[in-house]
C-alpha cells in the first residue's frame, strides 16, 4: 500500500469519525436548543412596526424580525381559546375543540411531547383552559404561574395569579405582567444548564386598556367598562410598548446567561386586535378584527429568531397557522410526534433555516367558540382568495372586508384555479365533527360576556372545585 493511499484512507476514517461525533453531539440533550414561545393576547398583524404598523413602538420585536424571520401570512383563530387549543395540540379546532375556556384532558400538547423528550417545561401567563390546579402538569408543564387557572380576577393591577399550586401574594401597585415576567426569568435562570421549554402566553394587550407601570398615571388610573376600550384615555399604545419591553427583558436574561445562541424565540398573536382599536398601518387606518373571520381577525405577527441558525432578515410570504407551531418545535428539538395524534399542522422549520421546505398552498379554519356540531364559519384561504363552506368566494386583495362575493361568471383564470384549489381543501374536511367533542360543546355553552362580543376571559362560567393548593399564599418564585 502506498503512502498516498494510506493518507487517503486515514483522511476518510477521520471524516467518518467526525461525522459520527457531530451526530452524537446533536443527539445529546445538552445540545438541544431551548424554546421560548410567546403568545401575545389580542395582538394583530398591524401592531408591529416591522410589519408596517405606524401607531406603536415595538423595537424589540422589530430587531428580532430584522435578525430573524418575519412571516407576512401567519394566521390564528379569531378568538383566544380556539387559538390556544390549536397552538398547543397542532390539531384543527374541527377535530378537537370542546368549548370556550376549556382544553379537553384527552389531548396531548407540546408540553407533554417536549417533557417526554427531556425538556424542563414551564407555562406562565394566561391559562383559560380549565382542568384545575392539576391542569398545567397534566398537559406537560413542570412549573406554572398563571392567570385564570382556578380563579377570575384582575390580570393587571393587584393581579389574581396562581403559581405551582399556590396563590401569589400581590399588592395594589403590583402589575400582573411584571410578576409573570419575573417568574419566567427565574425559570430560565434556574434551568440554564439543561434544555427548557418556556410557553409564555402573555396577558397583555387585552382590554381593559389600563395604564402600565411606564404610564404617568399608573397609580391613579381607574379604568371601568366605559373606558375599557381604545379611544380617548386608552392606554393600548402603552400596553403594546410594555409587552415589547417584557420581551426585551427576556432576551436580555438569555444574553446575560449566555443562552441566547442556543435559544429559539417564536412570537405570534392569538387573534386580531380588539374591535375598538384603530391603528395606522401602511398609511391607512385599520380597525381591529378580533372575533371576525376577516384577515384582520386572523392575521397576526409571526417572528422567529435563533442567532447563527435561522435566516437573518428573511421576510417569508409562506402561509402558516397555529397548528404548525407544534410540529415546528418538535422538528427543531428532535422530538417525535406520534402518528396517532393525527395533527393537522405542518412544520415550517426548514423555512426558518433558509430552505424552501414544504410550504402550504392553503389554510383551513373551522370556528365556533362555543363548540358543538356546526361551525359559526368555515373556510379555506390562501394569501389572495378565500372560499367559505357556504360557497361565498372573495378576492382578499380587493375586498379585505369581504363585502362583495365574486360571481362565478366574473372569475378570471387565476380566480377559477384558486377556487378549485380551495374547494378541494374544504372537501378534505367534509363530514361530521368527532361526536365526543360535539357533545362536550353542547353540554355547556358559555354566554358572550366580554364586551368584545365574545365569551373571552369568561372560562365557561366555571366554578372551580379548587384542587390542591388553591387559596394558599406564596411569594412569587419558581422551584429551585
Could you explain the architecture of this structure?
- The protein is of the alpha/beta class and 480 residues long.
- It has 2 domains: 32-360 and 463-474, Alkaline Phosphatase, subunit A, CATH 3.40.720.10; 377-431, no CATH class.
- It has helices spanning 3-27, 59-66, 80-89, 93-96, 110-116, 135-138, 176-190, 236-256, 295-298, 325-333, 349-352, 413-427, 435-443; strands at residues 34-40, 69-75, 120-126, 143-147, 161-163, 166-168, 196-201, 263-269, 278-281, 284-287, 299-305, 314-321, 363-367, 377-381, 385-388, 393-395, 473-474.
- Strands 12-2-11-8-1-7-3-4-5-6-17 form an 11-stranded mixed beta sheet, sandwiched between helices. Strands 13-14-15-16 form a 4-stranded antiparallel beta sheet, with helices on one face. It has a two-stranded antiparallel ribbon with strand order 9-10.
- α7 (176-190) runs parallel beside α8.
Keywords:
480 residues; 17 strands; globular; disordered C terminus; four-stranded antiparallel β-sheet
In short:
By secondary structure, the protein is of the alpha/beta class. It has helices at 3-27, 59-66, 80-89, 93-96, 110-116, 135-138, 176-190, 236-256, 295-298, 325-333, 349-352, 413-427, 435-443; strands at residues 34-40, 69-75, 120-126, 143-147, 161-163, 166-168, 196-201, 263-269, 278-281, 284-287, 299-305, 314-321, 363-367, 377-381, 385-388, 393-395, 473-474.
Question: Regarding CATH, which class of the largest domain?
Answer: Alpha Beta
Low-confidence stretches: 11-30, 225-229, 446-480
How many distinct folded domains?
2
Structural class by helix and strand composition: alpha/beta
What is the ordering of alpha helices and beta strands? Answer: HEHEHHHEHEEEHEHEEEHEEHHEEEEHHE
- The proportion of strand residues reads 15-25%
- What is the number of beta strands? 17
> Reading side by side through the largest sheet, how are the strands ordered?
12-2-11-8-1-7-3-4-5-6-17
**Whole-number radius of gyration?**
23 Å
| Coarse shape | globular
Largest β sheet strand count, sense and barrel closure = 11 strands, mixed
CATH fold naming of the largest domain = Alkaline Phosphatase, subunit A
Architecture of the largest domain, according to CATH? 3-Layer(aba) Sandwich
Q: What distance lies between the first and last C-alpha atoms, to the nearest angstrom?
A: 61 Å
| Mean pLDDT over the residues | 88
CATH superfamily of the largest domain: Alkaline Phosphatase, subunit A
Helix content: 25-40%
User: Helix tally?
Assistant: 13
Amino acid at each position: 500500500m502506498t503512502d498516498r493511499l494510506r493518507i487517503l484512507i486515514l483522511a476518510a476514517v477521520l471524516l467518518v469519525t467526525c461525522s459520527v461525533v457531530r451526530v452524537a453531539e446533536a443527539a445529546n440533550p445538552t445540545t438541544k436548543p431551548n424554546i421560548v414561545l410567546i403568545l401575545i393576547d389580542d395582538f394583530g398583524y398591524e401592531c408591529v412596526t416591522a410589519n408596517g404598523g405606524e401607531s406603536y413602538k415595538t423595537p424589540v420585536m422589530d430587531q428580532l424580525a430584522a435578525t430573524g424571520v418575519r412571516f407576512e401570512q401567519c394566521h390564528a383563530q379569531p378568538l383566544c381559546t380556539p387559538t390556544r387549543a390549536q397552538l398547543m395540540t397542532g390539531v384543527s379546532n374541527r377535530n378537537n375543540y370542546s368549548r370556550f375556556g376549556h382544553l379537553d384532558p384527552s389531548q396531548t400538547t407540546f408540553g407533554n411531547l417536549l417533557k417526554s423528550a427531556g425538556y424542563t417545561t414551564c407555562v406562565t401567563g394566561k391559562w383559560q383552559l380549565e382542568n384545575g390546579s392539576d391542569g398545567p402538569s397534566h398537559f406537560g408543564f413542570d412549573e406554572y404561574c398563571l392567570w385564570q387557572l382556578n380563579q377570575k380576577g384582575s390580570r393587571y393591577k393587584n393581579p389574581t395569579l396562581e403559581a405551582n399550586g399556590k396563590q401569589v401574594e400581590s399588592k395594589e401597585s403590583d402589575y400582573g405582567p411584571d410578576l409573570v415576567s419575573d417568574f419566567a426569568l427565574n425559570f430560565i435562570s434556574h434551568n440554564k444548564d439543561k434544555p427548557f421549554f418556556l410557553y409564555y402566553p402573555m396577558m397583555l394587550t387585552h382590554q381593559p386598556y389600563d395604564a402600565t407601570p411606564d404610564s404617568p398615571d399608573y397609580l391613579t388610573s381607574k379604568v371601568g367598562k366605559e373606558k375599557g376600550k381604545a379611544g380617548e384615555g386608552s392606554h393600548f399604545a402603552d400596553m403594546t410598548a410594555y409587552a415589547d419591553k417584557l420581551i426585551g427583558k427576556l432576551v436580555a436574561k438569555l444574553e446575560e446567561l449566555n443562552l441566547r445562541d442556543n435559544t429559539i424565540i417564536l412570537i405570534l398573536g392569538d387573534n386580531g386586535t380588539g374591535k375598538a382599536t384603530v391603528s395606522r398601518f401602511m398609511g391607512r387606518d385599520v380597525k381591529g378584527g378580533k372575533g371576525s373571520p376577516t384577515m384582520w381577525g386572523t392575521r397576526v405577527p409571526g417572528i422567529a429568531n435563533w442567532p447563527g441558525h435561522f435566516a437573518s432578515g428573511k421576510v417569508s410570504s409562506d402561509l402558516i397557522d397555529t397548528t404548525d407551531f407544534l410540529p415546528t418545535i418538535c422538528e427543531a428539538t428532535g422530538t417525535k410526534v406520534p402518528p396517532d395524534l393525527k395533527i393537522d399542522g405542518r412544520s415550517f422549520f426548514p423555512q426558518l433555516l433558509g430552505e424552501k421546505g414544504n410550504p402550504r398552498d392553503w389554510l383551513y379554519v373551522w370556528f365556533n367558540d362555543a363548540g358543538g356540531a356546526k361551525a359559526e364559519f368555515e373556510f379555506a384561504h390562501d394569501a389572495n382568495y378565500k372560499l367559505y363552506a357556504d360557497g361565498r368566494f372573495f378576492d382578499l386583495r380587493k375586498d379585505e372586508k369581504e363585502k362583495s362575493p365574486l360571481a362565478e361568471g366574473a372569475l378570471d383564470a387565476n380566480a377559477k384555479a384558486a377556487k378549485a384549489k380551495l374547494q378541494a381543501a374544504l372537501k378534505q374536511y367534509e363530514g361530521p365533527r368527532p361526536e365526543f367533542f360535539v357533545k362536550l360543546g353542547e353540554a355547556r355553552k358559555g354566554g358572550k360576556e366580554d364586551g368584545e362580543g365574545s365569551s373571552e376571559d369568561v372560562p365557561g362560567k366555571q366554578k372551580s372545585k379548587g384542587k390542591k393548593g388553591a387559596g394558599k399564599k406564596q411569594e412569587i418564585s419558581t422551584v429551585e
